[in-house]
Structures are given as C-alpha cells and as structure tokens.
Amino acid sequence: MTTSDVGTTIQTVDGHRLKLSNPDKVMYPETGLSKQGVIDYYTAVADVLLPQLRDRVVTRIRYPDGVGGERFFEKNAPWYMPDWIRHFTISASPGTGKAAKQVRYPVIDDLAGLLWMANQAALELHTPQWHVGPRGGVRNPDRLVIDLDPGEDRGLDDCVRVAHIVAERLTEDGLRAIPVTSGSKGIHLYAPVDGRRTALSIHVFVQKIARELAGRYPEQIVAVIGKDERAGKVMIDWSQNHPARSTATPYTLRGKAAPTVAAPRHWEEMTEGLKQLTPEKVVSRLEVDGDLMAEAGLR
Ligand SMILES: [Mn+2]
C-alpha cells in the first residue's frame, strides 16, 4: 500500500510503516539513478541479499546527498532507528581480548529493515565474516574473505589472474572459493569454513597464504597492506578476516561515480576483459543464475 505526499511516500512493508523521503533525489548523477531506483534495486535483490545480512552486524556508508556529496561511515545504530530493527551492543574488536569501545550495531532481518537503511541513503552495506547469536554472542566465522586490490597501473585483469592463483592455493586446504567482483576496483574471494576456528586464527591463516603467494609470485603479488607497496602489483588483503573488520556485503551497491554492485561471479567468467556489474545487470542475472552465493554454500 502506497500513499504519496510531496517528496514522501508511505509504504507498509512486513507490517511496518515506512516513510520513504525524497524518492526523486538523484543518488548517482552519472546515470541519474534516484533514491527510488536504489530502493527498487534493494527490493529486487532482497531475497538474495537478506541471507547475506542475516545475523550479521551491519556497518553502513551513507551518502545523504548522493555519491558526489559527503559520505560517512556509520557503525552505531542512529538513535532514531525504529525499535523493530534489532540491535546488539558489541565490542568494536570482539574476541581479541583488547579493550575496545562498545558499538550498538543494527542487524537487518527483513525487507523493511533493508529499505529503512536505503532510505537513510546507506548505499553501501558492510558485514563481518562472523554471525551474532540471539543474545549478542559473537560466533566463529563461517566464511573467510580475501580481497584482491590492484595497485597503480594494474586492473581487474590482473586481479583475475591472481584470483585463480589464490583459489588454487585454497584448494590445497580443502577450501572452495567463489569470486565476487567488488563493485570497486578488485575482487573478493569468499570460501565457507566450518565454524571451528576463531576469526583471529583465520586472519593469521589467510595472512600466511598471502605471504606465501607473494613470495612465490613477487612480480605479481604483494601481501603488505598499504597503498605504496602495491604499485604495479595486486595486493592480497588478508586483513578483512580480523574480527574488528567488515567487507562490502555481496549484493550491496557501491558508492562509486556510476552505480555498481559487489556481485558473485561464475569461475567461467573469470577471464580477460571481466567488468564490474551494474545493478540492472545483477538483477537480470538473478533470473538466469539464481543465487551464486547460496550455490557456493555461503548463505
Ligand atoms: Mn578492496
């Protein structure tokens, strides 16, 4: 049910009354994608995105004036968040034994929560590799992530080559990775893990693999996290497995000049000329491919 007002629509979603403000506001000037367009995208992918968000705390990058304007990274649930969106107060660095500040994180359970966030211009959603339990306990990760970032003079083709190298190395440890083009410059590789290892131990394990591959392919790969080191190479960023870190959630929009999505891909696509995907493309692929994340055991 939708009623219209000047600059606002009221929708009832999942039994919650949602006020969507400024639907015509342009969020991506390069293509003209509006806030309504963002809401339509998130509605179209909800069936595959919600399983990625389920029981994970979500940090947001908000673009109140669209991608050309100021953006801010938000961890805490804003005070005005409706109480039907769950939230958990958790250490910013759980499971590390370090004193860290407490964060009141939201968890998105349904389309209503997703659209409430979209209405906040939270274009980008980021999640950690661990779940939160029903009372706010932090579980061991059920997946690992390896972020491939191209340095200066390197691009997606170079990331593709390194993705194959990393995936093959992971099979030696019985891990099967799926590539996700990040919607930015690189590729995220995800692999399911059995939940018996802590985030910190996975963090160290992935760091070891990154260093090993950088040693074996020094012309192509660097395992040192930093902007300068990666020039002319692909950086294997292992650090996003740290329990304090999060990664762009598969199927989230990215806040780039033109709208793109963090999108799961077939290995057969991982060849020269690979491109990042637009939201339209991701939605049309869903009808053909279904949920590649689920197929990879990642939901
Ligand atoms: Mn990256």
CATH architecture label of the largest domain? 2-Layer Sandwich
Terminal residue distance:
30 Å
Which residue ranges are poorly predicted, with pLDDT under 50 across at least 5 consecutive positions?
none
Mean pLDDT over the full residue set: 95
- Computed over alpha carbons, the radius of gyration is 19 Å
> Could you tell me the strand content as a percent range?
25-35%
- Give the spatial strand order of the biggest sheet: 14-15-11-13-12-19
Number of domain units: 2
> What composes the largest sheet?
6 strands, mixed
**Number of alpha- plus pi-helical segments:** 7
What binds here, in terms of ligands, is: manganese (II) ion
Mind explaining what this structure looks like?
With 299 residues, the protein is α+β, with helices and mostly antiparallel strands. The chain folds into 2 domains: 2-127, DNA primase, PRIM domain (Alpha-Beta Complex), CATH 3.90.920; 143-295, Alpha-Beta Plaits, CATH 3.30.70.3300. 25% of the residues lie in helices and 26% in strands. The chain is built from 7 helices and 19 strands. The protein has helices at residues 35-44, 46-53, 111-119, 156-171, 199-216, 279-289, 292-295; strands at 2-5, 8-13, 16-21, 26-28, 33-34, 59-62, 72-74, 86-91, 102-107, 122-127, 143-150, 178-181, 187-192, 221-222, 234-237, 247-248, 253-254, 260-261, 263-264. Strands 14-15-11-13-12-19 form a 6-stranded mixed sheet, covered by helices on one side. Strands 7-6-10-16 form a 4-stranded antiparallel sheet. α1 (35-44) runs antiparallel to α3 (111-119). It is globular and about 60 Å long. The protein starts with a strand and ends with a helix. The relative contact order is 0.16. The model has no long low-confidence stretch (mean pLDDT 95). The structure holds manganese (II) ion. Manganese (II) ion (MN) binds at residues 147, 149, 182, 186, 237.
